[in-house]
Design brief:
The chain is an alpha/beta fold. The protein has a single domain, classed as Rossmann fold (3-Layer(aba) Sandwich), CATH 3.40.50. The protein has a 5-stranded mixed β-sheet, with helices on both faces. The longest helix has 25 residues. The radius of gyration is 18 Å and the shape is globular. One of its GO terms (molecular function) is oxidoreductase activity. InterPro entries: NAD(P)-bd_dom_sf, SDR_fam. Belongs to the short-chain dehydrogenases/reductases (SDR) family.
Length: 245
Amino acid sequence: MTSFESIVKFKGSLQQWLLDSNLHSSIQLLINNAGILATTSRITSEGYDQMFTTNYFGAFCMTKVLLPLLESSPTPSRVVNVTSFTHRSVWSMQVDRRAIKFLSKSKRYPFAEIYEYSKLCLLLFSYELHRRACVMDNCHKLSVVAVDPGAVKTEIMRELPWGISHIAFISLKALGLLQTPEDAVGSILDASLALPVSSGEYFFGGKGRTLASSPLSYNSKISRDLWDTSNDLFRELQEALETPD
């Protein structure tokens, strides 16, 4: 997810597999589930912050690249973006090229802020893609939902000091909020299998439950700006890949 070239190659491999398998050249479900919590700054080969790219911009690019295959499906298709309740920690945001590349000049890498911001961006993207599909009268063919499994015991905090992650997991377990991956996958299945009318919803915690996300996540101007800026950067990566050295 951190390499645009790799994403494009994946699409080519997928199309070839569909062809070799004598299957319809389309897909019905895309789940953007990639996510990391990095504690140090790392830059991708294309000049983007690695964590932000993994958590948001890579998902944007993957969806854009695979959108023709989703839209050509003979049955209704769906995009599911796996986000996080941590998006609620963001109270204001700026959308520009620098914010998406997230190249911080600070000596201290603001990993918590970047993680929270990336999850809000993924949510904004989900709602904007849903709105655009509806404007094109395409809601019945392509639905888009966001899902938050809640707190799950995975290796997401492996880069944090052991004591911090250990205390966090113990506290969440004591509060009855910590889930196993096997339990948490239920919310993703709910979001994936819900009726098309659920497009634009925010699923949380399993059992088909939906909630309102943060007020900021419904800001349509911010979501449009994020889409436009992300799309400009997407096109630049496309052009760079198509231009011979």
